[in-house]
């Protein structure tokens, strides 16, 4: 009997120490090495333990799979916000995400006296789960002493759950959250200006209402502003699939910008910047997206282009061209004239995946059109000549095919020889030749 009691004591003590170790490890990883003098809270660690001890939907950024018998309901819910609302509602508001930062970013340290910030989030009829996940991720992954407050600006939402229910929920959070209500629909920029005018922090941080912040997202942004208060900084923007809510890491080798037609595009980091950084990818890219260490990411379906940054300034609607078989999209990859068009994971963020299908049946990206001069491709981008010919593609909205008229072949997914370039093949009706042209024109 005495031996049994002794064994119970040893096992209990061992279990306690294991739990203490887990809490300490998660505390320092989730709080990004918080200064103990400024943040004694173990809440982030506790949340991490709770979320990571269950194989819940979407944990660690994994894709959510909807059962077949729920597919029709999923499609109906999709229409409400133009993303998989059923999947979003299945995911915890404080779900875990992988830390995809470069090793050099993970070990960086920052000054103790960084400026604090007010976060401004504008929403209009936003889904409950995506809005709350944005708020919770910002709170859970921001050092408490740096996050002064969150301002939610309601741009005349009509949904009841965004009224008193939202007010009651945010009142329970450990960070002060204020809700400002626009009297009438005013658009993204006016709403952001209203929020900015009401902030009390030293720095204003704007987030979309449908993003999630990962560990270490805030400190590098504030550090750059501390170095130069005139700086306007932007993190790497990762992607959440609008279909499955899978987390997909973005690239630190691209930056966002506008071309002369005011189309937003992703461009490769120029060689001069690579040379300036001397191979150190933890340094920011100037005049483009900034920090390697800070990675809030947008849900792919709801990138904020409306109100000030129209995807395409023309009478032709713009589209994302998604392959049914692979769920990947045609992408210009930032390439130039006479280079092959690309094929990449759909991110719903416009940019290089915005194409317009014109009245002349051209597939355009800026001044370039998809062009194929021989059977089986390749499909390249050439100056639009408005003479149809090699640049004429007929879209069949029922069969979902893009027929290249001159060759009488269909646009198809890439071949094994070149997995990053769509090709032409004899039309067969298979899923790899089916394309969904999703309208990317967002209302102002």
Automatic annotation (TrEMBL):
Primary localisation category: Golgi
A GO cellular-component term linked to this record: Golgi membrane
Positions of transmembrane segments: 9-28
EC number: 2.4.1.-
Subcellular location as annotated: Golgi apparatus membrane
Cofactor: Mn(2+)
Superkingdom to which the source organism belongs: Eukaryota
Pathway this chain belongs to: Protein modification; protein glycosylation
Membrane topology: Single-pass type II membrane protein
Enzymatic class: transferase
Keywords tagged on the record: Disulfide bond, Glycosyltransferase, Golgi apparatus, Lectin, Manganese, Membrane, Transferase, Transmembrane, Transmembrane helix
Region: Disordered, residue numbers: 277-296
PROSITE patterns: RICIN_B_LECTIN
InterPro entries: Glyco_trans_2-like, Nucleotide-diphossugar_trans, Ricin_B-like_lectins, Ricin_B_lectin
Record-annotated Ricin B lectin domain positions: 318-438
One of the record's GO molecular function terms: carbohydrate binding
UniProt xrefs under Pfam families: Glycos_transf_2 (PF00535), Ricin_B_lectin (PF00652)
GO biological process: protein O-linked glycosylation
Family: Belongs to the glycosyltransferase 2 family. GalNAc-T subfamily.
Protein name: Polypeptide N-acetylgalactosaminyltransferase
Species the sequence originates in: Cyprinus carpio carpio
Phylogenetic lineage: Eukaryota, Metazoa, Chordata, Craniata, Vertebrata
């Amino acid at each position: 009997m005495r031996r049994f009691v002794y064994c119970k004591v040893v096992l209990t003590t061992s279990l306690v120490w294991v739990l203490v170790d887990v809490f300490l490890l998660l505390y320092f990883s989730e709080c990004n090495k918080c200064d103990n003098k400024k943040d004694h809270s173990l809440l982030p660690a506790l949340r991490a333990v709770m979320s990571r001890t269950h194989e819940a939907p979407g944990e660690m950024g994994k894709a959510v799979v909807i059962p077949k018998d729920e597919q029709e309901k999923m499609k109906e819910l999709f229409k409400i916000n133009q993303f998989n609302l059923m999947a979003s509602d299945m995911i915890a508001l404080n779900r875990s995400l992988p830390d995809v930062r470069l090793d050099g970013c993970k070990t960086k340290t920052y000054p103790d006296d960084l400026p604090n910030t007010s976060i401004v989030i504008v929403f209009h009829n936003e889904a409950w789960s995506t809005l709350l996940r944005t708020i919770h991720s910002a709170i859970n992954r921001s050092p408490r002493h740096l996050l002064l407050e969150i301002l939610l600006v309601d741009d005349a939402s009509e949904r009841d759950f965004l009224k008193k229910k939202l007010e009651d929920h945010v009142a329970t959070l450990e960070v002060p959250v204020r809700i400002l209500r626009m009297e009438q629909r005013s658009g993204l920029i006016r709403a952001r200006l209203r929020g900015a005018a009401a902030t009390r922090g030293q720095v204003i941080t704007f987030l979309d209402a449908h993003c999630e912040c990962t560990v270490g997202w805030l400190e590098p942004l504030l550090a750059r502003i501390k170095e130069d208060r005139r700086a306007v900084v932007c993190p790497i923007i990762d992607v959440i699939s609008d279909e499955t809510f899978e987390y997909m890491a973005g690239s630190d080798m691209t930056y966002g910008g506008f071309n002369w037609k005011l189309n937003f595009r992703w461009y490769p980091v120029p060689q001069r910047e690579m040379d300036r950084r001397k191979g150190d990818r933890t340094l920011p890219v100037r005049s483009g997206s900034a920090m390697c260490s800070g990675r809030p990411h947008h849900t792919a379906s709801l990138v904020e282009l409306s109100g000030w940054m129209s995807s395409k300034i023309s009478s032709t609607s713009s589209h994302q061209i998604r392959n049914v078989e692979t769920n990947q999209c045609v992408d210009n990859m930032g390439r130039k004239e006479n280079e092959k068009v690309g094929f990449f994971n759909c991110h719903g963020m416009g940019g290089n995946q915005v194409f317009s299908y014109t009245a002349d049946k051209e597939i355009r990206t800026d001044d370039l059109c998809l062009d194929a001069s021989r059977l089986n491709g390749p499909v390249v981008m050439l100056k639009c000549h408005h003479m149809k010919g090699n640049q004429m593609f007929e879209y069949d909205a029922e069969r979902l095919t893009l027929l290249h008229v001159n060759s009488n072949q269909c646009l198809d997914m890439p071949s094994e020889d070149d997995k990053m370039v769509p090709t032409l093949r004899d039309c067969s009706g298979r899923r790899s030749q089916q394309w969904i042209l999703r309208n990317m024109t967002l209302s102002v």
